[in-house]
Backbone:
C-alpha cells in the first residue's frame, strides 16, 4: 500500500473525514484503498477479503458519503450479514463513522422478545437510512408486505460465504427479488467458491473485483500444536489453562452441543467460563460479551460463529479444542489474539483423524508448525505413533500422539 495515501485522497465528505478522525482511522487498509474509489464511482463490486482487513469501513465510508447529500434517504441502503453479532458490530461502526453526519441506521436481527420485534418494526416503518440485517429476520418482516424498499439504492452482502454456509441463500434471493433492479450492489466474502461466484453473477452487474489475500496470522501470535487423543483432550486442556497465564481466553469447539458439554465440564472442574452459542437469547449474548470485554469473564467457549463475531483486543489465549474443517477458520480463530500490537498464544489439539486438515492449515499459513512433543498432566511412557507423510516429517516419519501412562 502506498504510504502517502490518506483518506482525504478519496474526496470524501468533510463530515465523513471528521468521523474517521474521531474513530482514530489514519491510513486506509489495502481493501479500503482498492474498494473505496470503485464504490464511490458507482461500480458494483465483488471483494474477497476476510474479517480483520478493514472491509466494513471499506463499504460503510462510501455509503455514508453517498447518503449525506440525498434529500430522501430513508431505507436507501441495506447491508445483509450472517449473524446478530456482526449486525451489531457493523451498526456500531456506522454510528461511529457517521457521528458528524445526519445518517441513521438500525440493526435487524432475530432472538430477543416481543419488545425487540416491536422496536425493529417501528424503526423499519419510520425508515432508517441504513438497515443492517440478518436475512432470516429481515425476510420475516418483508414477508408481511408492510415494508417496501422501492427507494433502495445500495445493497451490500457481507460475509457472503458464511451466509450461504448458514443456509440463507433462499432468504437472500427472496429479499433481492423485492429490491429495485437499478441499484449498486457490493459483495464481500472471505472465500470465493463457485457458488459465491454464481450468486454474484445473478445479482451484480459488470462488477469490479478486489481480492485481498487471506492474511497469515500475526507474527506476535505464538502458535503451538499438541498431539492429543480425543479421550485425553479435557485433561490436556485443564493443564494448559493452568500452565499458561491469561486474562482472557477463547476455546473453540466443532459443534454447539460440544460447546455446551465442555462448558459444563469445565465449570465442574472449577474453571470460570460461559458458553456462547446460537441458543442463547440476544440479551444473554450481549451480557456475556460485556463481561468478557470487561475482564469479569475469563473464558468463553464457542463455535466458529464466535471467531467472526467478536471484537476484543486483549485476548491472550486461543485454544482450538477441535481442528476447524476450513483452514481459513483457523486464521479467523487465532486472529482473535495478538491484536493491537499485543502478544498472543494459540494452541491447537490435533488427533490422528485431523492430520489431513492440519496439513491444509499449514499450507494456508505458509509454514510448518512444530509439534509440541512433551508429556502433559504427568503423562509418560512411549507415545502412540502414526506413520505417514505430514507436518514435521517426510514420508514414513513418526507422528506422536500422547496416551496416558499406565503408571
Residues:
Amino acid at each position: 500500500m502506498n504510504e502517502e495515501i490518506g483518506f482525504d485522497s478519496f474526496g470524501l465528505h468533510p463530515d465523513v473525514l471528521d468521523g474517521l478522525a474521531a474513530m482514530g482511522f489514519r491510513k486506509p487498509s489495502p481493501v479500503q484503498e482498492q474498494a473505496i474509489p470503485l464504490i464511490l464511482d458507482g461500480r458494483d463490486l465483488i471483494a474477497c477479503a476476510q474479517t480483520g482487513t478493514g472491509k466494513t469501513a471499506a463499504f460503510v465510508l462510501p455509503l455514508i458519503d453517498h447518503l449525506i447529500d440525498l434529500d430522501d434517504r430513508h431505507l436507501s441502503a441495506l447491508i445483509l450479514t450472517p449473524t446478530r453479532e456482526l449486525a451489531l458490530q457493523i451498526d456500531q461502526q456506522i454510528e461511529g463513522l457517521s457521528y458528524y453526519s445526519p445518517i441513521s441506521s438500525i440493526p435487524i436481527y432475530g432472538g430477543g422478545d416481543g419488545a425487540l420485534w416491536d422496536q425493529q418494526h417501528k424503526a423499519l416503518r419510520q425508515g432508517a437510512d441504513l438497515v443492517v440485517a440478518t436475512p432470516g429476520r429481515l425476510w420475516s418482516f418483508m414477508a408481511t408486505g408492510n415494508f417496501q424498499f422501492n427507494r433502495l439504492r445500495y445493497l451490500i452482502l457481507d460475509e457472503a460465504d458464511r451466509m450461504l454456509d448458514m443456509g440463507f441463500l433462499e432468504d437472500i434471493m427472496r429479499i433481492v427479488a423485492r429490491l429495485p433492479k437499478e441499484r449498486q450492489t457490493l459483495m464481500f466474502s472471505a472465500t470465493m467458491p463457485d457458488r459465491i461466484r454464481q450468486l454474484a453473477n445473478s445479482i451484480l452487474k459488470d462488477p469490479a473485483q478486489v481480492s485481498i489475500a487471506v492474511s497469515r496470522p500475526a507474527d506476535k501470535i505464538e502458535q503451538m500444536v499438541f498431539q492429543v487423543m480425543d479421550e485425553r483432550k479435557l485433561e490436556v486442556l485443564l493443564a494448559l489453562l493452568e500452565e499458561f497465564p491469561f486474562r482472557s481466553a477463547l476455546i473453540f469447539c466443532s459443534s454447539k452441543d460440544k460447546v455446551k458439554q465442555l462448558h459444563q465440564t469445565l465449570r465442574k472442574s472449577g474453571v470460570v467460563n460461559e458458553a456462547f452459542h446460537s441458543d442463547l437469547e440476544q440479551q444473554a449474548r450481549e451480557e456475556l460479551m460485556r463481561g468478557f470485554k470487561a475482564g469479569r469473564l475469563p473464558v468463553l467457549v464457542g463455535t466458529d460463529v464466535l471467531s467472526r463475531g467478536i471484537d476484543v483486543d486483549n485476548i491472550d489465549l486461543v485454544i482450538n479444542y477441535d481442528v476447524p474443517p476450513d483452514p481459513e477458520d483457523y486464521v479467523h480463530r487465532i486472529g482473535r489474539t495478538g491484536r493491537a500490537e499485543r502478544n498472543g498464544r494459540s494452541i491447537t489439539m490435533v488427533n490422528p483423524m485431523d492430520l489431513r486438515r492440519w496439513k491444509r492449515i499449514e499450507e494456508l499459513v505458509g509454514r510448518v508448525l512444530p509439534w509440541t512433543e512433551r508429556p502433559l498432566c504427568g503423562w509418560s511412557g512411549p507415545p502412540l505413533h502414526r506413520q505417514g507423510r505430514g507436518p514435521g516429517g517426510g514420508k514414513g516419519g513418526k507422528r506422536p500422539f500422547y496416551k496416558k501412562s499406565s503408571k
